[in-house]
Predict the structure.
Amino acid sequence: MTARLIDGVKLAASIREEVAQRAAALTAKGIQPGLAVIVVGSDPASQVYVRNKVAACEKAGLHSVLEAYPATMTQEALLDRVRALNADPKIHGILVQLPLPAHIDSHLVIETIAAAKDVDGFHVSNAGLLMTGKPLFRPCTPYGVMKMLESEHVEIRGAVAVIIGASNIVGKPMVMLLQSAGATVTICNSKTRDLGWHTRHADIVVVATGKPRMIDGSMIKPGAVVIDVGINRLPDGKLCGDVDFESAKEVASAITPVPGGVGPMTIAMLLVNTIEAAERAYAAK
Ligand code: NAD
């Protein structure tokens, strides 16, 4: 079997188009949705991500502000910027790009973002709302994965889903979203014994470990849907995922490529979260 390719670029483009229409409607009513992105330090991957996020905003007609600071920025100065953006009525979403330099407490920074502007969905109150089935913001990457599964009409209800990687930004919220949609979910981490035993029982496999090509076709149940969240830069400069695409595509029924899979969806869902925040701000006026 050769798997169907789940095209994240195409799906993200249609979502961004819908966001652009909603942004235009809101702007016509006097509220232009606005996103502020803060990046601290010069991590090359972070610089690319923030530039892509801001460019996507501008293309969709959102107001966007990119604040770039040197790695020497103090924690207090960063918290002051976050507080100022919390109070800025032109800004509906605030994103602080992770990772932050080691002298800054990322947890404290995220907790300082107003929950109503936390478009990444990382604030503990947003994590709690997701956990209790009443999400305000769904974290962008898992939200994008759900949209991909929906667009492919993947039967989630009753499915066995295995998530590999238990981070706060991908794996854990992915559990909540899949479980809310009716899947029976297992989450694996670096201590899991016999990973392949778990993955070979899964109808849906989501991999987010940051370990290049660690899941291959022999670990996939025939006909499973494989979602590869990983983005790894190889020594030759090329990008690859956490799944060995060539062998997995021979076994899976559908699979996401890297690049061109989950990555573009993460940005599209950031725009969706920002527009939703702006719509809520308008409704509360
Ligand atoms: P992280 O480092 O915070 O967490 C990795 C998780 O994987 C941990 O829970 C760890 O226990 C688990 N893990 C590591 N090795 C493992 C192994 N051998 N077996 C089982 N589990 C293992 O990573 P993260 O922030 O969740 O990111 C994971 C990957 O996803 C990275 O490649 C990152 O670049 C990528 N990512 C992509 C997007 C996107 O938009 N496509 C967004 C976020 C993260």
Observations:
- Residues 116 and 277 are 7 Å apart (CA to CA).
- The first strand starts at residue 4 and ends at 5.
